[in-house]
């Protein structure tokens, strides 16, 4: 999964069936230190994430399994809102509380 | 999902079964500001998108689920025609109305 | 889907079941103007594409759905032989007839 | 599959169903010599891998098949904790015991 | 599919169910001329490929379909051992017999 920061919204009236009622958020991928990496993309959200939240995003074919019995044509979905991360590189500890 | 701009069409007479009747559009990926990023690709379309439209494209294995009971061998499909996006980076707001 | 040009063949006697009788072609990815982009790869073919043909290639998990009831372990398949493409960038029209 | 080194943890209270009870680890991809390559990502873990372990990670749609009857929306999972690798390039042998 | 050269082995005692008895080989991706491209990765093998063999590798979600009734969490699998390739670029023919 990738870590990302919610930076915006996308609205689309005409869309494929199955996407009705699902929020579409613009995600800026970040590393564990919060630095922006790569290009923004759009992810579906059912958890109620808001602009500024750090989130965990699943990409690819597994995304559609947020509803097992009803796969929908999406390729990125927010699966968690991150509370905190803890990373150890060599002798250094990096901790961060997100969304406080 | 990726944001893209429809820039053309592809025609193919000889094709795999299941692709009959599906439009094939050339998509230029763009960022939320409308700048071109990466290389163009081809996506299936059932929504009636036209050249110049900004669209939301699902890539990979989920694409085939535009018809759940009848998966077809495609890896990119237009799932929405974008009305507008709103992005907030730091203190700046960027809004854009598409397809006006 | 990606646009590619068929540039060769691969032969393998020892292979996984399910791949018997499927042709394996070397594909050079190209953009809509026919310029080579990225590295060549190998795609399965059931349409009878030949060296020099411009083709449409589906990658990833959807590839195996060329036979819905019999998914096979392939990650790239030719789904169409391109007749022509038409691309509009700004004020310029680019048309091309392929495989003539 | 990719080789990676476990470098940290991610905690998320609000998450999609099906992710309850699954550990989320930060992975630094490495080559067979242990050098860091590319950007860190997050993988699910059911094997009990710890910080410092070298692991084998499956990405993409297959990840969800750690429980065949219960696919979950993840795109990276630790499928093995590496004991050792042996690589032969030209005339040189490179062996390494991991996690000792 | 990608062309690769088998350059080594990976051993893991603790692993996910379903991976028991499957060999894990280190693959160096190569182009049709045999030049190394990109970073090595690990693929499952049931065909008995050995170090030095040129092989055809399927990546992503289709990999798990080497056993249709028993999908396993792998994202790369050797589907063929290459006998030979033939590539035509412009007026030049490139043939190569592999594994002789």
Automatic annotation (TrEMBL), chains A, B, C, D, E:
InterPro entries found in the cross-reference section: EutN_CcmL, EutN_CcmL_sf
CDD domains in the record: EutN_CcmL
Any single GO CC term annotated in Swiss-Prot or TrEMBL for this entry: carboxysome
Keywords recorded for this protein, A-Z: Bacterial microcompartment, Carboxysome
Subcellular location: Carboxysome
Pfam families referenced in this protein's UniProt entry, alphabetically: EutN_CcmL
Keyword hit for RNA-binding: no
Protein name: Ethanolamine utilization protein EutN
Species assigned in the record: Planococcus donghaensis
Taxonomic placement: Bacteria, Bacillati, Bacillota, Bacilli, Bacillales
């Amino acid at each position: 999964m990738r870590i990302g920061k919610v930076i915006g919204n996308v609205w689309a009236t005409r869309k494929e069936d199955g996407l009705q009622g699902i929020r579409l958020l613009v995600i800026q991928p970040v590393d564990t230190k919060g630095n922006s990496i790569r290009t923004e993309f759009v992810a579906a959200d059912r958890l109620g994430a808001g602009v500024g939240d750090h989130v965990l995003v699943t990409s690819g074919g597994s995304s559609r399994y947020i509803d097992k019995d009803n796969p929908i044509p999406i390729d990125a979905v927010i699966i968690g809102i991150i509370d905190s991360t803890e990373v150890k590189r060599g002798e250094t500890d990096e901790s961060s509380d997100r969304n406080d």
